[in-house]
Amino acid sequence: MAPQREWFEKDYYKVLGVPETATDKEITRAYRKLAKQFHPDANPGAEDRFKEISAAYDVLGEPDKRKEYDEVRRLGPAAAGFGGFGAPGAPGGAGAGGFHVDDLSDLLGGIFGRGQRGGQSRTGSTRRGTDVEAELHLSFEDAVNGVTTTVNLTSDAPCTTCHGSGAAPGTQPTVCSVCGGRGMKDDNQGLFSFSQPCPACGGSGVRIEKPCRICRGTGVERRPRQVRVRVPAGVEDGQRIRLKSRGTPGRSGGAPGDLFVTIHIGPHRLFGRRGRDLTITVPVSFSEAALGAEITVPTLTSPVTLRVPPGTRSGRTFRVRGRGVPSKVGVGDLLVSVEVAVPQHLSDEQRKAVEALAAVMTESPRQALGV
Ligand SMILES: [Zn+2]
Ligand SMILES: [Zn+2]
Quick check: 179 and 87 in contact, CB under 8 A? Predict the structure, then answer.
């Protein structure tokens, strides 16, 4: 879950009466005791207190949430993306009659020509990493069967030297002393009080005394990297596969972006593809088409026997079930189109035989055309 603004306003440890170092067990024990004590059934009128206790346990009772809560409290509101909101009791409210505006440009549609400010303040605080696009070329067979492979790409990644902190190895970013980690500074202008991104830390809420030399303190480095991709069976040409959180790392504790891999599928010597179905064109001789035959047809696995009925016209398509592309929704079929092959060269014997055939096939195939 995303950090809540209440997290900065409420000290859940205090609510439960436990130290910040309390173990999960101690937290649960404290919660149970208080919940019993302030349960509205047992103690009418204690509803608000009970709600408060429940809300505190809702966060502290789940190790993941608690970790996040501790983290955002440690870094301050700016790092959690609430840089624009004055902390409770912050000297944001201007004097009597004044009111606190976090970002006037949002309210007035940038009428003051400060439309950039909203963007900047957000840049300064938590920012999600950008999505990255990559291409992956697969063989026909790999696309049909599925494959685990690597995608090579060059993109922003957490700096390997400072592990994304931006601080030189052996040092840590420190909380900005100018804004106290909020990332914002209040700027009183008569009636209004603006929040500006803190000029000392650029809105990040942290200061880096000794920047990492490799990434110059950005925590991000552009480098080639390889990402393992599990391509499911039956992937289609042009399909985009989303790899969550494998894009560019976020800034100031923001979530990383996603990686989108666009699939390109190479051709096959024999087969074509129509979604889950495979297609193939198989030549048959005139006599096979006319008399009927059992022919052997290749598939992506073992060959199958196909019965061609007598009088099969050229171009007719037969469906061989279950010999297509496997996918989550089932296996497709193999569509076999037969094509009557006409010999390019005839031996004397063959020529005589065809001539003898022609002599007895007196009906014109163009009779229906009325000519
Ligand atoms: Zn670095
Ligand atoms: Zn600052």
Answer: no
